[in-house]
Structure formats: C-alpha cells, structure tokens
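Subject: Interface between my chains keeps coming out wrong

I've been trying for a while to get a sensible model of this assembly. When I model each chain on its own everything looks fine, but I need the whole thing in one frame so I can look at the contacts. Pasting all components below, labels as-is. Any help appreciated, I'm running out of ideas.
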Amino acid sequence: MTSRTINLALIQSQCFDNADENRQYIKTQLKQAAANNAELVLLQELHNTPYFCIEEKPSNFDLAETIPGESTEFFSALAKELSLVIVCSLFEKRSAGLYHNTAVVFDKDGSIAGKYRKMHIPDDPGFYEKYYFTPGDLGFSPIQTSIGKLGVLICWDQWFPEAARLMALAGAEILLYPTAIGWDPNDSEQEQQRQLDAWTTIQRSHAIANGLAVASCNRCGDEGNGELSTRFWGNSFICGPQGEMLTQAASNTNEILQYTIELEKTESVRRIWPYLRDRRIDAYQDLNKRLIDQ
Amino acid sequence: MTSRTINLALIQSQCFDNADENRQYIKTQLKQAAANNAELVLLQELHNTPYFCIEEKPSNFDLAETIPGESTEFFSALAKELSLVIVCSLFEKRSAGLYHNTAVVFDKDGSIAGKYRKMHIPDDPGFYEKYYFTPGDLGFSPIQTSIGKLGVLICWDQWFPEAARLMALAGAEILLYPTAIGWDPNDSEQEQQRQLDAWTTIQRSHAIANGLAVASCNRCGDEGNGELSTRFWGNSFICGPQGEMLTQAASNTNEILQYTIELEKTESVRRIWPYLRDRRIDAYQDLNKRLIDQ
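Reply #2:
Try treating it as a single job with all components included. I did that and got this:
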C-alpha cells in the first residue's frame, strides 16, 4: 500500500464585519498553518462575511462575488505563495438574479482545481438560505488536486448520507465540509447538546459508511441579536475512516485545528468493513423518490 | 399531534447451545417484559442458536427451519398469550438449497404481520454469512402492525444508510435491528473500542438522518474457540430521533432493556430538521451504481 498523508488544517474563527478584515485575518492563519507544514487548509462556510442568511434582505446580494473574482484572486495568490491547497467558501454571483453557495478549491500552484455548488439548501428561522442560494447544479463530483481527490460538500449537505456516498463512489479520498451551524440561544442546554452531538454523529457516520476521513470546519461566536441571533458552535473536527475522533476544537475559540491524515487507512478499513462490496444496487432505485407512497 | 407511544423491550443474552433451551429462556424473558408492560419485543439475531456462521459447515443447514414452522408456532403462541408484538430472527429454509436470514414479526393476536429477509449479507473471517444466506428479495418494506409500522432490518444492514433511508421513505415509524456482532479477541482494546463506537454511531446516524427512533438488539458472551472465536459485545441500545441515546445495555450481561418510545417526536424533529424536504432526488441516480467510474 502507498503511504500517502495529508497535513490538514481547519481555520475556525468568529467572523469580522467585512470581507476585507476577514480575508486579512484568514491570511495570517493560512501563513501560520503553512509554517506548521499544512498542505491542505479548509475554511469555514461563507468565511468572508457574517452569516447574512440570518434574515432575508435584498441588499445582501451585494455581498456576492463572481468566480473568478476578487476573493478567488486573493486566495489563489495565497495558495501559490504558501504552496497550499485551499478550500474556500464563497457567495457566488453567477448572473443577475442567480446566486450559489460555492466552495472553490485552489491547488498549490494557485490554479482553481475545481468548485462545488452546495446541493442541499436549508431554510429555517434564522437560516434563510433558500432566499439566497439556488441549489447547486454541478452534482457530487470530487475535485482532483495535486495532493488527492477532495470530496467537498457544504454544511446542510452534511445531514444527507446520499451526498457523502456519491462523493465516495466517485472516488473522493476525504470528505471536507465548510459549515456555519449554531445554537438558538432560546433552546435548552439539553437540546443544544443533542443538536451538537447529532451534528458530530452524522458526519462521523459518513466516515464510517464510506471508510473515509472527514473534516468539518465551523465558525464560532455570536452573531445577530435578539430573536435573530445565533451562537455558532465551533467544534470543528477531523475524524478517521472508522469515525474515530482525531482532533476537535472548542465551541467558542478561534483556532487552527491541524492533523496529519493517513489516506492509506481507507484501504485497510475498507478491507475489514467492505460495505462497497455489498451495497444492494439492485434494490436502491427508490432512493430517487421523494417518498415511497404505500 | 397524536401522542402515540411504544413500550419497547430488547432481550440481550448469551445463547445456549440448542434451540429448545434458547426458546425456553426467551419465553421467560418475554413474560417478564410483558409483566413490565412491554408492547413490542425485539430479539437478537438468530437467537435460537449459537452463531453458527463462525464456520462453513454443511450440516449447519440442519439448523434452518421453514416459515411458518416450529419456531413461528412457538413465538406466535407467545405473542398471542402475552399480547405482544414480537420481532424474531430465524434461519429460514425456503427450499432445499435456498436459505435466508429472516426476521418475522408477530402481531399481538399471534398472526404473522410480515417478514423481512436480510438484504445485505456480510462475509469475513468468522462471519461466513454468504455461505448460508441468499440475499433478501423482499426489498426494504416496513411491516404494519397494530402498534405501528416497523422498519425491521438485520445486523449488516445497519452499516448501509440506504437501507435505513428506504425504510423511512416507505413509512417506517421506528427502525429495529436484530444483530450479532462482536470483537475479535486478537484485536487491540483501542480497535475494539473504535469498532463498538462506530457501530453505535452509524445506527444513531440513521435515527438522525431520518428522524426516527432506532433500537438494536445484540447478543453477548463468548462463542467458538481459538482462532474461531468471537466475543459478542452486547451494548444493545435504544436511541431517539435526534440520535440521542435513551438506554443502553452492558457489553457482557443478559439484560432486558426497556424504554417507552414517543413516536410523535418524529414529527417535531422533522419540523426542525426537514431533510426529507430537501433531498436532491434529481441528483441521486448514481446511488444505483457500484462505483462511479471516472
């Protein structure tokens, strides 16, 4: 077996109010991660701005940008300068009236290796994403980079085993989730704990079901106020292909979470747990249905 | 909302050497569960015998029985006598040379409400199930009973999110797994812990992804010897629709694990986590493929 590793860093932080401040902060963190030998950096979802989907406001579309555009130029230059693969998460303006929640992957030479448009779009009080983002139309395609094939998914996608499975079947070697998820301060502590635990559990389960390492980078800190407030719960983590937690950030601190993933573990785990061998693809056709009406 | 509950009992135990002893033991446990107001009892996988798949041995096919047959008569009578819904797990002889690993559900009147034939069949050292069991051909259909629609799956099925999803889409109100899983005594303690944790995590994730309670009933105790030995790890559990652990058995003791499930929680959890609303059924067709060749 090959002995390939990826030194992976996640940058968890509370967002500043504007894109320039956020980019400058991320730049300092990227430099630090690179100094610590990171090869791949995963940023949190929509890292350039506060989580604007907390309300439906037409002027928020001003926050979107084209791809390529100002942010991709910024991160492309840093990827090249620091020789990093970077997964960033942008509010993409594709056309007037057509926007996506899009991850862009830069290779070490600064080129755009690929992009992924968030496929599953949430919408619930304080997370009005269906107002802003058209569901992705690029499918579940992993992105080939010089260090491996990255299965990039975004936030709400993390609750759908189908998304993780499709990335794995298409050859992803690791699953990466930029995310922005938090607590409603009105919920009880027990409910908050259940939600955090469910969030960790479902993503660890994708590692287990597919024999892949999984990393999830979440923001932290309070945003909004009153009825429109969210406490982003941090807890960014990296787990191995048996779902075993390798490292996890705190709920409320800016942090660079770094760990060296051993990609060859996928081969050994899939030998003891050969789920791909046994999938009943002859009996899965109804997964394409909304509901199986009786 | 309705306020429907199910008082559910799982009977975890070390198996005796022969079917009659096992059935008699289970009978005492069923009576005790019924005396504690159980309405639904989930038995462990292949509870009538030691885990014979530990080796490939032609005479082991003598352990199989027809459905209906001796065991279904036995459990049917108990279901009626005790007014219990019972999920039992049998080695089904369907025809000469054609056998299945089959769960049979009895309603409170003793009738057979339905059966499920294990769809995903494992095969690895000490678990030679592909030798014994033809993969199920009844699909992923929940079984309607007087107390609710039961999504019965079996053991290895628990590692496949597709199976849980299909049961949920077809209207299952709870997922139930008879199972027989254990440690290889040659594995390190850390590896054993990772495996147990992965097993719990993947099943809890089915609860989360589908907003359903999940119960898994495993056997315990050592079976076989030398290179052909397994320590069945018990840890039967019941979790709620956010994946929250409600109750869990020890690894090595015979136990009746009992808990009252509130079915209406599915409605409230699916309101805050409306995954079924957002599934990208337009983009899931490749789930029917073995691999997505690039």
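Reply #3:
Confirming on my end. Chain A has one domain: 5-273.
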